[in-house]
Amino acid sequence: MELLVRVGVWVLVLVLGSSMGANGEVSQVSWREISNINSEGPYIGIVVPNVFELHPLLHSPSFLPHYNFPYFDFAGKHFRIGVLEKKKVIIVMTGLSMLNAGISTQLLLTLFNVRGVIHYGIAGNANPKFQIGDVTIPQYWTHIGLWNWQRFGDGPEDELALEGNGDYSRKFGYLRFGDFNNRTKHSKSVTNVLNNVWFQAEEIFPVNGTPEVRQHAFWVSVDKTYFNLAKRLKNVKLSDCVNTTCLPRRPVVVRVEKGVTSNVFVDNKAYREFLHSKFDATPIDMESAAVALVCLQQKKPFIAIRALSDLAGGGSALSNEAAFFASLASQNALNVVVKFISLLNS
Where's the Nucleoside phosphorylase domain (predicted)? Predict the structure, then answer.
């Protein structure tokens, strides 16, 4: 009798789940759609932050939506299915920030048969060696927004809270706010009570690891094969003018060592210079490290292509012009993505 009751309960759950599709679960109808989409895979996943970065892709003659299922909507995300440079792709726009980028990438990899991920968009620039419009392809990404904020009075020699438990470390260095103090009106410096913030590695749980047994990741490498392939992007033609306003030179595609991500729009010269000197950072953005971390956990090849829209915080003849040059930078990033996809093996 107990067995019959249990079977009855499971049947009821399945019936309700398939007919209602409530509480965010994937309904049977949705699974059938997903299965149909995946039957034509695998796909290249393309992850894009915002509408103005997505717009050039959707209007590119190289992109052709699928004739039968051009899109699939799930959990607030709009997954576009089609072909780009004769390669099957699924495109998702994340929205701003690490959270949205991480959720979108995880859904992409959970629902669909994806063999690799390309992330592209615009970014601030921490490296004055480069200019607006240049397209950067970093080998490594890190999230610089995970901090342990040290109490006032403690310094580099003092253990951080919970460091002894292995939750935090002093391995990756810190930002000391006092290094950026201005003089007081009496020309005397004062101690900054904000003290230090120590940069921390992310906790990750790889699919081939033991559940609930954490690993740590600070610098996340892009896929080696993808990064080597990016050598062949140097000659992509990039735009250098918006209407009648032109850049000092034609933009270039360049592989760089490092990019950094946090939920901060950096328009501050002092912090930009700190990020460049501390981490050798070139692009600064709000999504790439999240995409990188999810791909690392899911063991999927990944690369990020970011066009520079401004020198973060200004300091040159071209100060922060992100709003003005966003369209140019977005198009340049897409031009590189299209070429990159054309070089991938089918």
Answer: 44-341
